[in-house]
């Protein structure tokens, strides 16, 4: 009987599903990753496999998802599937397997069906040992599958186990963990292929409806809502995200100031977060504040509130350029650390935006003193002009991505990477708790 649905990296088959394929894998793909065309059993080399139907129905729809491993890895990372979490998941799966085997052995009516792999084999199996063998076996599986049949050592036994088992003997039930564990052994440009062709031909009556459902799932990933202090912050971050990480932008939605009539500002965000908490909203939300005195003062308003785990309160990160930045005060220009005092979005736009025609950084003007925090609030002089400059820069690069490397994106990239990791702690908990969950 056919394998139905294959998951491959390039030409290397890494695993197959029969009836219950993995929908979570679809979250790694986008609608644009779909490859679909019409073919025949003969052209696809499947005549022998389906000889009982080849004469009656020789035509089939080739349908699969395909994306580069570099993109897949980025998507796994923002979903919380880091290398560390994947290794934890492997070890936890081994613990579950051993515990389950010990329970079965303890039964009076136990019959040993574990063939040549005793429980001691699994108690000694670690993720490091498994990975060390995988990196060789995956690229020459037939060789390892036909040698060491006498299992003269534990190493022989492990090689045989990995080479002969589905998913290379991965012990868990979360295929995304398996994928994150092995992905670094392949070239980032290799393609991950999730192939539904045989399943469509042999198992699906209404191909159109089934394909439509797959497209809908791939087009609707779980997304996170980003709330910033102002409309300028939103369009700058949103466009930068789409420019620098086009394959990740679909995982984030931004509050639209013009459509919602949201007033903006640190205080308004605090009130909005309180309202979200009050109604028990379940969506993931990141409230992204400026790195300045006004934000710190407003955040005191929720300091005593229990923030649910689906809401992240975050500020723009400290950056190097702000550690020694020119400021305008009563005694003239003084360079100082403005992190936490005047870190609005404009400070993160890069030297090419912040410098004037003479190469000098535009200074910060101190605008007010917060007596409670004993800190001044600072703001760039004539900061609106920087919006026009970054708009032009973004437009240039959007029209010609080859120009991206000509500009300084380091600090805006720090903001984006902060967004990507915001829910890693929560995701780790969910991923590990869901292993073998009923």
Describe the structure.
It comes from Larkinella punicea. This is HEPN/Toprim N-terminal domain-containing protein. This protein has helices at residues 51-54, 69-78, 83-106, 119-123, 127-137, 141-145, 154-164, 175-182, 197-203, 207-218, 231-244, 257-260, 266-279, 293-299, 351-354, 384-399, 410-420, 424-433; strands spanning 5-9, 12-17, 34-40, 59-68, 191-195, 224-228, 252-254, 284-289, 291-292, 311-315, 325-329, 332-336, 342-343, 364-370, 375-380. By secondary structure, it is α/β, with parallel strands linked by helices. The chain has a five-stranded antiparallel β-sheet. The radius of gyration is 27 Å and the shape is elongated. The model has no long low-confidence stretch (mean pLDDT 89).
Query: What is the overall shape?
Result: elongated
- How much helix is in the residues? 40-55%
* Overall average residue pLDDT: 89
Residue stretches low in confidence (pLDDT < 50, at least 5 long) are none
Helix-and-strand structural type = alpha/beta
Largest sheet: 5 strands, antiparallel
Question: Termini distance?
Answer: 29 Å
Number of domains: 3
Number of helices: 18
Strand proportion: 15-25%
Features of the shown structure:
3 domains; elongated; 18% strand; five-stranded antiparallel beta sheet; HEPN/Toprim N-terminal domain-containing protein; alpha/beta; 438 residues; 40% helix; single chain; four-stranded parallel beta sheet; HEPN/Toprim-NTD1
């Amino acid at each position: 009987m056919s394998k139905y649905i294959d998951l491959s990296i390039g030409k290397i088959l890494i695993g197959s599903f029969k009836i219950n394929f993995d929908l979570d894998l679809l979250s790694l793909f986008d609608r644009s990753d779909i490859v679909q065309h019409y073919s025949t059993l003969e052209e696809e080399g499947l005549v022998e496999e389906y000889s009982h139907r080849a004469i009656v129905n020789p035509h089939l729809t080739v349908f699969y998802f395909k994306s580069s491993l570099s993109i897949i890895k980025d998507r796994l990372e923002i979903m919380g599937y880091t290398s560390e979490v994947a290794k934890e998941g492997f070890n936890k799966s081994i613990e579950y397997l051993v515990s389950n085997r010990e329970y079965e052995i303890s039964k009076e009516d136990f019959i040993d069906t574990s063939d040549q792999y005793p429980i001691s084999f699994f108690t000694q199996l670690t993720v490091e040992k498994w990975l060390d063998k995988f990196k060789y076996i995956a690229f020459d599986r037939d060789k390892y599958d036909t040698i060491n049949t006498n299992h003269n050592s534990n190493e022989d036994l492990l090689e045989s186990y990995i080479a002969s088992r589905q998913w290379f003997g991965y012990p868990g039930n979360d295929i995304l963990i398996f994928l994150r564990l092995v992905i670094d052994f392949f070239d980032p440009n290799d393609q991950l292929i999730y192939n539904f062709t045989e399943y469509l031909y042999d198992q699906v009556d209404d191909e159109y409806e089934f394909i439509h459902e797959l497209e809908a799932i791939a087009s609707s990933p779980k997304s996170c809502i980003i709330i910033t202090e102002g409309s300028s912050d939103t369009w700058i971050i949103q466009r930068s995200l789409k420019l620098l990480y086009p394959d990740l932008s679909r995982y984030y939605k931004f509050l639209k100031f013009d459509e919602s009539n949201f007033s903006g500002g640190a205080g308004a965000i605090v009130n909005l977060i309180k309202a979200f908490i009050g109604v028990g909203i379940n969506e993931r939300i990141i409230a992204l504040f400026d790195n300045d005195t006004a934000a710190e003062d407003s955040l005191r308003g929720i300091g005593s509130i229990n923030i649910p785990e689906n809401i992240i309160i975050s500020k723009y990160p400290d950056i190097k350029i702000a550690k020694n930045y020119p400021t305008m005060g009563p005694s003239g220009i003084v360079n100082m650390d403005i992190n936490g005092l005047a870190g609005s979005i404009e400070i993160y736009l890069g030297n090419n935006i912040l410098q004037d025609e003479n190469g000098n950084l535009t200074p910060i003007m101190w605008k007010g003193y917060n007596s409670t925090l004993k800190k001044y609030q600072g703001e760039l002089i004539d900061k609106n002009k920087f919006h026009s400059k970054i708009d032009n820069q973004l437009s240039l690069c959007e029209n010609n991505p080859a120009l991206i490397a000509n500009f300084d994106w380091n600090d805006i990239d720090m903001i984006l990477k902060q967004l990507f990791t915001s829910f890693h702690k929560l995701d780790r908990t969910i991923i590990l708790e869901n292993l073998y969950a009923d």
